[in-house]
Amino acid sequence: MNEPITRQEPIRTESANGRFKNSFSSWFWSSMIGATMVHFGFFAYLEFAEPPDLSLNGEPPEVINLPPDVVLPPAPEAIARPAIPVIAPTDIETDITIDPTTFTSLSVDDLPEPPGEVELDVSAAPVFVPHTVKPAYTNAAEVMRALEREYPPLLRDAGIGGTVQVAFFIDENGVVRNQVVEVTSGHKALDDAALRVAPVFRFTPALNRDKAVAVWISLPITFRTN
């Protein structure tokens, strides 16, 4: 004989999320109580800091006497205003005239003498002279021998050299007629030696278009040890 079939209820299982939601209230209040107890314990054992003693225990401050008040001098007196000009009555002749000027009344004999031509010595000091072709020196080997000959022995043995900027005055034939130191080397002995070497230079004449002219040029003279 067959047994009757009975209907069984399904077994319900609670998930982890559900269990967490159900226990949230207990966890929350437990945490709040624990945090409150920790704070009370912290404040119970906390030593509060006391402010430092800022009272003055040292020597009393020194009293400084103020300087006396500066007495300002009185203001200067006001400048008197100038008096109002008064027009004085004066008799002026109304027929004042200027004599007419005529060229016939002037005499040529009364004219002053024209100024004479002033001769300018160009060779006295360095000046600019117009020229279109610069002079060039042509005896380099002779100049090198003069540099070796005139080099002061004391400075050469000591290894002291230098450069002297020399101004040359060269005439129409390319001959040096004057020389002056423009920029010193810092040693008078080298400056004097450069002035002795300068007349040894030989130049081609300077030209102003097609005419030879005397000019000033500037060249460096260098003394160096090998």
Question: How would you sum up this structure, described in words?
Answer:
By secondary structure, the protein is α+β, with helices and mostly antiparallel strands. The mean pLDDT is 81. The longest helix is centred in the N-terminal third of the chain and has 30 residues, at 16-45. The chain has 4 helices and 5 strands. Helices cover 25% and strands 14% of the residues. Helix 2 (140-150) packs antiparallel against helix 4. A 3-stranded antiparallel β-sheet has the order 2-1-5, covered by helices on one side. Strand 1 (162-170) and strand 2 (176-183) form a beta hairpin.
Low-confidence stretches: none
- SSE string: HHHEEHEEE
User: First CA to last CA: what distance?
Assistant: 141 Å
How many strands appear in the DSSP assignment?
5
Taking all Cα atoms into account, the compactness measure Rg is 57 Å
Overall average pLDDT = 81
Strand order of the largest sheet: 2-1-5
Q: Structural class, from helix and strand content? A: alpha+beta
**Which percent range fits the helix content?**
10-25%
Largest sheet, strands/sense/barrel: 3 strands, antiparallel
How would you sum up the global shape? extended
Strand-residue proportion: 5-15%
Count of DSSP-assigned helices: 4
List the helices and strands and how they pair.
Blueprint: H1 16-45, H2 140-150, H3 153-157, E1 162-170, E2 176-183, H4 188-197, E3 206-208, E4 211-213, E5 215-223
Helix pairs in contact: 2-4
